[in-house]
Design brief:
heterodimer; A: 595 residues; alpha/beta; Rossmann fold; 6-stranded parallel beta sheet; 20 strands; B: 183 residues; alpha+beta; Alpha-Beta Plaits; 5-stranded antiparallel beta sheet; 4-stranded antiparallel beta sheet; 38% strand; elongated; acetolactate synthase activity (chain B); EC 2.2.1.6 (chain B); Acetolactate_synth_ssu_C (chain B)
Chain lengths: 595, 183
């Protein structure tokens, strides 16, 4: 993590300095190299906002709802590799932050959330805007604190950054009562912070690497199954993955969270794995003889039916979190380490053994047969724009630019994952684990705040985006020229798809009634609105969106009944993927009960 | 992983997972606010069982507390419980007392028995056999203090049942390992 830090001189002069709690917050943020934070003021954080008033080195992005601040901090973190920071007041400010905290926990996003709390003498009295923030966030944050003594505050802030950004990253909440913000105490610098019970293991054991290399050398049908851990481990990890792949020639698939770690244009790229992943990726996972899981966690969206998951393979699992090992799928060789360190050790070992690139021609021939199925093919535009076509055109027209993509959750998210292709890490921001509708727009705000000159696009659905629509106002205020590209099919598309397949086409409450006119809505917010319902006009209008110097809402009217395919029906194994039309009969009773 | 040759498929591994075992885990934690809530919350959030739980600060200087948890689960679940506990930031160590050959478990109980005549005499006689101490007495009742393995206390209470058992208060299991080393 490349963080800007204060000069040693300034730092040492601050160590031991007397200041208020609110000043400590700002001083600690500066010392941690925070240049941007997302927040919303309120009674219990006014002293912090007062200290922020005269602080030019921190850009504060004022959101419209605290959930937006949390997701923006996530987008900032995911796109920069730095820690996201969000600030909210007590009570409703803190409870509104619960969704992004949980989201960051599920997707292992480093984030520090600072919340105000009622003064210590009022805690427990059901005071105005009081809630038990540490109680509420205990189970959805990596760690949390209630700071009741101003002399503990600086240490706690630094410890929070240490915990959020090291080991398996995650959100850390610091709840600061208002009287602690006003009180004067002694500041300590980050250098003195040490947490003896928190010592994540990052270096792989020698024997695990040796066993892994033995297996890799013997493999004839290997596959790399990579995940968000590679992205979290930093750009160096993605580089090492590419080098190890080049040395071994093994094909690569990735989870939704790991897209971009390996270039999609590479001949050995199999596409995304999982429920809506590529046919060749899922079949390779099922038929491989060696699976090398790098920073992924065998999520149910990836494994399908557990008892039939990759039955003939031996498995290596690289993960920094020991609790991920054998949690869902039993593995043969666990490698508990940071992805970067493990990949480096494997690469060094592979080279030291002078292992030749194995002959995988039979395996790759088989993969080519699966690839020839062309699983992401979709019908021609038939009057209306096919959503897949819209994403494909968006990709073609933006791929040569400095582009970042975020998404909401649902069909559009899967179409984006299937039809938008990534060459680099940190370019793809999506809510994977929690599946938070409304993630993408505020995430785009956060990404754009970190990358002012880049093209930031939220590929959205008309239902998801309405959950956080107000954040377009944030983008307008802060001159963040995000592009909200809505695939508007007038349905909660994934809900509709499941109702079609599993509930006898009874579309219970999944139609997006009373949709706003998104073009007028954009204009009302002071943004630019574009509507397109004609495939022939799509390219020109996408270019208009790209060229507009300011936030845009693009209302792309698409085919309404399109289903997201291919699909592994819930409860089915990888090799029973449904490609073309799906009737619902493929899903058995047990599968229907799953989510 | 020292098996050789290279282990066969993970699915060839022995899955004796249906069997539930009881385990006593000693969890050494930083004694900071909410730490017990974190441990208990983890058990409820992930659907693990808690049969008994004891907690107290054991090292004031180091701010260390020791939580002893008796839990049941399959081997797989127990492995996860340990790993998930270690994921909590204030958890310094998790010791499986049951698996450790050097583990010692003890529980203390206060047992109130009311009765007169023969049953009262019999209760006192059994208490002597179990080395339970009388810590309170009236003409119609005793309170016994008994220490030992949980099974011994179970058995004592069972014997007291027909003799006028009124109430039992138990500490839950305490644990430590034999030998000179800590932890």
């Amino acid at each position: 993590m490349d963080t800007h830090t204060l000069s040693d001189q300034t730092q040492s002069s601050l160590d031991g300095a007397r200041m208020t709690g609110a000043e400590m917050v700002i001083t600690a943020l500066r010392e941690q190299g925070v240049d941007t934070m997302f927040g919303y003021p309120g009674g219990a954080v006014l002293p912090i906002y007062d200290a922020l008033y005269s602080e030019p080195s921190i850009q504060h992005v004022l959101v419209r709802h605290e959930q937006g601040a949390g997701h923006a901090a996530e987008g900032y973190a995911r796109s920069t590799g730095k820690c996201g920071v969000a600030l909210a007041t007590s009570g409703p400010g803190a409870t509104n932050m619960v969704t992004p905290i949980t989201d960051a926990m599920m997707d292992s996003i480093p984030m520090v959330v600072i919340t105000g709390q009622v003064p210590t003498h009022l805690i427990g009295t059901d005071a105005f805007q009081e809630c038990d923030t540490v109680g509420i966030t205990r189970c959805c944050a990596k760690h949390n604190y209630l700071v009741t003594d101003v002399d503990d505050l600086a240490r706690t802030l630094h410890e929070a950054f240490l915990i959020a950004t090291s080991g398996r990253p995650g959100p850390v909440v610091i709840d600061i009562p208002k009287d602690v913000q006003f009180a004067t105490g002694t500041y300590i610098g980050k250098a003195g912070v040490y947490k003896p019970t928190y010592q994540p293991k990052t270096e792989p054991s020698e024997h695990s690497i040796r066993d892994a290399l033995d297996m890799m050398a013997a493999a004839r049908r290997p596959v790399f199954y990579t995940g968000g851990g590679v992205i979290n481990s930093g750009t160096e990890a993605s580089k090492l993955l590419r080098e190890l792949q080049a040395a071994t020639g093994f094909p690569v698939t990735s989870t939704l969270m790991g897209l971009g770690a390996f270039p999609a244009s590479h001949e050995d790229w199999l596409g995304m794995v999982g429920m809506h992943g590529a046919y060749e990726a899922n079949n390779a996972m099922h038929d491989c003889d060696l699976m090398i899981c790098v920073g992924a966690r065998f999520d149910d969206r990836v494994t399908g039916k557990i008892s039939a998951f990759s039955p003939g393979s031996r498995k290596i699992h690289i993960d920094i979190d020991p609790s991920s090992i054998n949690k869902i799928i039993r593995v043969d060789v666990p490698v508990i380490a940071d992805c970067k360190a493990a990949l480096q050790a494997l690469l060094d070992g592979w080279k030291a053994r002078r292992l030749p690139k194995p002959d995988l021609s039979d395996w790759k021939e088989q993969i080519e047969k699966w690839r020839a199925v062309d699983c992401f093919a979709y019908p021609e535009n038939d009057g209306a724009i096919r959503p897949q076509y819209a994403v494909e055109r968006l990709y073609e027209l933006t791929k040569d630019r400095d582009t970042y993509i975020s998404t909401e959750v649902g069909q559009h998210q899967m179409w984006a994952a299937q039809h938008y292709h990534f060459e680099e890490p940190n370019r793809w921001m999506t809510s994977g684990g929690l599946g938070t509708m409304g993630y993408g727009l505020p995430a785009a705000v956060g990404i754009q705040a970190a990358h002012r000159d880049s093209l930031v696009i939220d590929i959205a659905g008309e239902a998801s985006v309405q959950m956080v629509m107000q954040e377009i106002s944030t983008a307008v205020q802060h001159k963040l020229p995000i592009k909200v590209f809505i695939l508007n099919n007038e349905w909660m598309g994934m809900v509709r798809q499941w109702q079609e397949l599993l509930h006898g086409e009874r579309y219970s409450h999944s139609y997006s009634e009373s949709l706003p006119d998104f073009v007028k809505l954009a204009e009302a917010y002071g943004a630019h609105g574009i509507r397109c319902d004609d495939p022939a006009e799509l390219d020109a209008k996408i270019m208009e969106m790209i060229d507009h110097d300011g936030p845009v809402i693009f209302d792309c009217m698409v085919e309404k009944a399109e289903n997201c395919l291919p699909m592994i029906p819930s409860g089915a194994p990888h090799n029973e993927m449904i490609l073309g039309k799906i009737s619902g009969d493929e899903i058995d009773e047990a599968g229907r009960k799953m989510v | 992983m020292s098996k050789e040759p290279i282990p066969a498929s993970a699915y060839d591994m022995d899955h004796a997972e249906e069997v539930e075992e009881r385990r006593t885990l000693a969890v050494l934690v930083d004694n900071e606010p909410g730490v017990l809530g974190r441990v208990v919350g983890l058990f409820s959030a992930r659907g693990y069982n808690i049969e008994s739980l004891t907690v107290a600060e054991v090292d004031r200087g180091k701010h260390r507390s020791r939580i002893t948890i008796v839990t049941t689960g399959t081997a797989h679940m127990l492995e996860q419980i340990e790993a998930q506990l270690l994921r909590l930031v204030p958890v310094a160590a998790v010791i499986d007392i049951t698996k450790s050959k050097r583990g010692i478990e003890r529980e203390l109980a206060l047992v109130k028995v009311a009765g007169q005549g023969d049953p009262r005499v019999e209760a006192l006689r059994i208490a002597e056999i179990f080395r339970a101490r009388v810590i309170d007495t009236t003409n119609e009742s005793f309170i016994f203090e008994i220490t030992g393995a949980s099974e011994k206390i179970d058995q004592f209470c069972e014997l007291m049942e027909p003799l006028g058992l009124v109430e039992v208060s138990r500490t839950g299991v305490l644990s430590i390992r034999r030998g000179k080393d800590a932890g």
